[in-house]
Fold this sequence. Notes:
homodimer; 228 residues; alpha/beta; Rossmann fold; 5-stranded parallel β-sheet; 11% strand; ATP-binding (chains A, B); queuosine biosynthesis (chains A, B)
Amino acid sequence: MTADSRRAVVLSSGGIDSTTAMAMAVSQGFSVFSLTFDYGQRHRHELSAARAVARHLNAEKHLVLETDFRKIGGSALTADIPVPGTGPVENTIPVTYVPARNTIFLAYALAWAETLDAADIFIGVNAVDYSGYPDCRPEYIEAFARVANLGSKAGVEGRITFAVHTPLIHMTKAEIIRTGAALGVDYSITSSCYDPSPEGLACGLCDSCRIRKKGFVDAGLPDPTRYV
Amino acid sequence: MTADSRRAVVLSSGGIDSTTAMAMAVSQGFSVFSLTFDYGQRHRHELSAARAVARHLNAEKHLVLETDFRKIGGSALTADIPVPGTGPVENTIPVTYVPARNTIFLAYALAWAETLDAADIFIGVNAVDYSGYPDCRPEYIEAFARVANLGSKAGVEGRITFAVHTPLIHMTKAEIIRTGAALGVDYSITSSCYDPSPEGLACGLCDSCRIRKKGFVDAGLPDPTRYV
């Protein structure tokens, strides 16, 4: 069996970035396997958004893996630390940073990719508007790709050369939104808010909402987000 | 806050290798945080063995994380593929290989280490009697350490330089057993079998049992394992 060049695992959070990355994978001819994590995040609404996105973009399969970061702790997204909602968007690593989150997500994506005989993994990380997360930088992604090829049966046997695609890594939020809109993405079904209402309405105040809002303004496109 | 040089996260399966690695961490003065995965493995007995080992070696804490590899599939240890039990121990990558298992385990260990402000991670991988797993080789471990330092807040901020310790990597099984025995490890509480009886007795036939048996013979020490 050789690598099926048409299959790609796409990490999806139901937000703007991963949704755009998925639309780009589709536009490149990949059959998409959407992978989402239920990690006890406060913003549960992103799980239903991710499901809606997988349907919207005709993903071949949508897999939700449970992984309980709360047992480990250390982040405002999963532990009992207040989510920051006021003040300027900081350039330092924020308290919403979850230790090793992308490493854990990419490790599972690799496991699924190897099982599917897929060489390609898409992750919507961004080094421009990336909120200061260290695991969104090109050198980190390159290091992970090395791990993927050295630590997998398919990689070592030379059957698959895994590639971690980061099509958004050098884009601004406005460029991401324009790219997705041009590919027909309906951003009204995506969710970015760190602290949505029980009905899933965005708070409009958290770092993620503010970056999103500014992105639509900068892109010159109407913001379809439903705010409280 | 600076890294607590006395804390180490030790990956534990309740088997001979990880137990010996844990005993070595203790002998080096580390306060041990034992990390075990409940990944739907057939050999559930290893979960109670890991708990017993953590108690035996006075671990500071023992954390069991659930992660369902069965949803991903692709291995005889978690899927419906027969476990091989006859024939010579093969030098190729066996069907018991779980895609990206060590990458997933190390990613969680990194998350916990960063939360604990611990720089040190111990993993009992072995490149001699390693059953052909690609993610037990030194170059793979080095690649992961690079991911750890590039992809974590503590690493990027220069607060912690993460180290992945593989004290067993160049030891034979006999050397591992002699080392642990010299450190006072009671191997009767450990579990290696891929296909134990419901009471937790080892099958004596699977690759893992055969490597274990041979290890005690080669070490010139009595094998305390309870076989069916």
